[in-house]
Amino acid sequence: MKTLGDSAQLAWDTIQQKPVDGIPSWAILPLEHRMIDRIAGVPEGTYANNPEPTYIKMQQAAGTCMVDQYIPLNPLTISDQGYEDNTEKSATTGLETVELDGMIIDSPEAVIEHIENFIFPKLKEKLEQNFDAETEIIITREQEIQKKLGSNILKVPYQAKFPMLLYNQYGYTNFFMAFALYPEMMEKLFSLQADTAVKMNQARLQAIRGANLPPLLRLDHDMADSRSTLADIKVLDDIWFPHFARAIKPLTDSGVKLIWHCDGNLMQMVPRLLECGLNGFQGFQYEDGMDYEKICKMKDRNGNSLIIIGGVSVTTTLPHGSPGDVKKEIDWLVANGPETGLFLGGSSSIAPGVSWNNLQTMLEGFKYYRTHGKR
Question: What single DSSP character describes residue 342?
Fold first, then answer.
């Protein structure tokens, strides 16, 4: 790692949970093009015509200290009025007929048949691969992005690998019926996913060590809605969590810090994730029951304070609140966050329609705490 600028160094020290004078800012993720242009300080229309350099300029102008998921083209998938009617549909966004590898997925039995005939063979084939090349790919990618971002924004690797619920492929209804009806097949799926994840995470560990990359990875997979987990927590205890813990073991055993992206009400999973070796959380939907204050008081399984990316709510406060509400929420995030390991950001992507006054207030709040810290 080359010499870091002050903001990137602040992020690095915060990942290491050292005492610091300021609170670093995580990447901001506005989707409205004109807001990206305005934050970047460029004429309207610049992002649409020259997206990646404008996205980077926006992060730099916003005072971003750390970027993990690098998605400069993501706002191009949405207009300033939201997703268009002609946006391509998927299994979870209204696709009428789900077809995979020539199979129509119209029942839980079809899900199981496709998993047996296609997913299992692919996972077994992947196990035979040499993952040394992946280590080099990760190093090259991270170094290239770091160079683009400049010395004042720290690029952090993204993401660790682990078993996932495959509802995105099969659709919610048929996948979760298969999950309920065929738990033995689901556990076999999670076991094979974990087998490959172990090797892929070993490659990530080698990249972090070999290139002195920041020892932090975010895990990103939606497993809850506004009520609770998408699958019964007791069943997850039996057939998912053991394989999840095994998948991330190369990283947790080596001191790489792992944080989980939270969507929905994930409170039942929080202590279980910590028991598996996670070190923190990002992206809280407070309105769904995520108890930020309670979580920030928790410890990881080694007794250490958590790494927290405290987010201004992109579902309530930013789109529907006033600038005063934004300021109040930032103050609350800081007051109740951990003493070390705290970042500030939005809770997720910022949809079109958020007012400039609210965005500006958020950025001003982040700037204040970058220089003043908790004092």
Answer: E
